[in-house]
Design goal:
GO terms for molecular function: ATP binding; non-membrane spanning protein tyrosine kinase activity. The chain is an alpha+beta fold. The chain contains 13 helices and 21 strands. The chain has three domains: 106 residues, 2-Layer Sandwich (SHC Adaptor Protein), CATH 3.30.505; 83 residues, Phosphorylase Kinase, domain 1 (2-Layer Sandwich); 211 residues, Transferase(Phosphotransferase), domain 1. β20 and β21 form a beta hairpin.
């Protein structure tokens, strides 16, 4: 029975078996990657719905672990045919519903195929993240996503009614590849749990449309907020720090976001959350299809050349995000066409931050985030650590140390002249100590100069070679 007045009518393309819908071993649209994790022992089985081919009806599929010793290769998938006599597999007996058919094979231990022995033994039931459509109620359209509408609404999750955001994808209006991408987004979000990453509640995939349910972050996307509201420097800096924590977390659990930008950050009650995981990939390197549309203005120069994406590419995009934040949502590289952006960035051009930007943040982005040499580019963990030092902000669950309190006693949103980066160790250090060491060196050189009796002979002319100090420009 539904808790909400809204109903989700079935489409003509949906296979329908009212008795099957009530069974916990029916999983609806389920990617094969999930099936591998669910079917562990010989005889484990579930019933699912196939991902549709263009202009073809969807079918029920019985997936069974046939040989656990070879894991994924040991799983067999049997299309459930619908004939005049009812539901059947291959040339087996027909039944009025899938449920009595499954019960028959379970009770008799009969192999479901005559080609080899493949009996059923244990039904694999639904997981908590697999939600029913009748427990989800859309209320108001928020906008359009890559696959369809995004709506605000309510859902019954973990025993309580919660305000949620709902992504809808109509299977009849998107491609098979887009369906896979939608389900993969739900898959990668399942393992996330962080205060600065949008929370995933579940996916409803038992019928059309597909629904991805997540927490409602109702102030809206960061790109629009930056344009509409006049944010203080304090708020902008906090957003940069919060974004660094969110991205660092993703990297720590083996994920690359691959689309870091203000448009993919949501804001609520002064808190920024990383969202939109449609391009997110597992691992530390993924190849990019050069034929597919990519966010060029947020792309690192290495990706442009090799079409390989690594976590350090997220770091580069994070620098563009910081520029967006301090530039009040302006388009990166302004009106330059994409191809010109590629050429300029690969040749060394870097955008200049607005003068109001804390100089320390502008410096770290220019020198160590937008660093062409990927080995000198900081990791997100190093960036987060550095930002915590210069702002005095503490990630949730951590307490301020005496050193933190000393740093935060300064104005955290101006550029402390004492902050620099040690390029050899690529870690943040306090320039005050460096200044002391430099002063000590100067005093030592003066002492040597006043007491020297023999001139240097490094250039053969009785004097040391002249050293010219290079001045760094903004675009180096």
């Amino acid at each position: 029975m539904s808790l909400f007045p809204h109903s989700w009518p079935r489409t003509d393309g949906d296979p329908f078996d009212s008795q099957l819908m009530t069974e916990d071993y029916y999983h609806g649209l389920l990617p094969r990657e999930d099936i591998v994790e669910m079917l562990e022992k010989n005889g484990d089985f579930l019933v699912r719905m196939s991902i549709p081919e263009p202009d073809q009806p969807r079918q029920f599929v019985l997936s069974v672990m046939h040989d656990e010793s070879v894991k994924q290769e040991g799983i067999r998938h049997f299309c459930i045919q619908v004939s005049v006599g009812g539901y059947m597999i291959e040339d087996g007996p027909a039944f009025d519903s899938v449920v009595p058919m499954v019960n028959h094979y379970l009770s008799t231990k009969t192999s479901i195929t005559k080609r080899y022995s493949c009996p059923l033994s244990t039904a694999v039931t639904r997981r908590l993240w697999q939600l029913k459509h009748e427990l989800i109620h859309p209320e108001k359209k928020l906008g359009e996503g890559a696959f369809g509408e995004v709506q605000a609404g309510k859902a019954f999750v973990s025993g309580e009614i919660m305000k949620v955001a709902i992504k809808l994808a109509k299977m009849g209006s998107i491609t098979k590849e887009q369906i896979r991408e939608f389900m993969m987004e739900a898959r990668v979000m399942r393992g996330m749990n962080h205060p600065y990453v949008v929370k995933f509640y579940g996916v409803a995939a038992f019928q059309d449309p597909l629904l991805l349910v997540m927490e409602l972050v109702d102030e809206g996307s960061l790109d629009k907020i930056l344009i509409k509201k006049h944010l203080t420097m304090k708020t902008k800096t906090e957003f940069c720090v919060q974004a660094s924590w969110g991205i660092e977390y993703l990297h720590s659990i083996g994920l690359m976001h691959r689309d870091i930008a203000a448009r993919n950050c949501l804001v609520n009650a002064g808190k920024l959350k990383i969202s939109d995981f449609g391009l997110t990939s597992k691992g530390t390197e993924v190849s990019i299809d050069p034929k597919k549309k990519v966010p060029v203005r947020w792309m690192a120069p290495g990706v442009m050349a090799t079409f390989k994406y690594t976590p350090k590419c997220d770091v580069w995009a994070y620098g563009i995000l910081c520029w967006e934040i301090f530039s009040d949502g302006q388009m990166p590289y302004n009106t330059l066409p994409p191809q010109t952006v590629v050429e300029q960035v690969r040749s060394g051009y870097r955008m200049t931050f607005p003068e109001s930007t804390p100089a320390a943040i502008g410096r770290i982005v220019h020198d160590y985030v937008w660093q062409h040499d990927v080995h000198r580019r900081l990791t997100m963990a190093q960036i987060s650590e550095w930002l915590e030092k210069v702002t005095g902000m503490h990630r949730p669950g951590t307490a301020a140390t005496p050193e933190d309190r000393r740093i935060s006693s300064r104005s955290p949103y101006t550029s402390p002249s004492t902050v620099s980066v040690n390029s050899d160790r690529r870690r943040v250090m306090d320039r005050t100590q460096a200044d002391k060491e430099s002063k000590k060196d100067r005093l030592s050189r003066r002492s040597c100069k006043s007491s020297k009796k023999v001139p240097h002979k490094k250039n053969g002319k009785g004097r040391a070679p002249r050293i010219v100090k290079k001045t760094r420009t903004n675009d180096e």
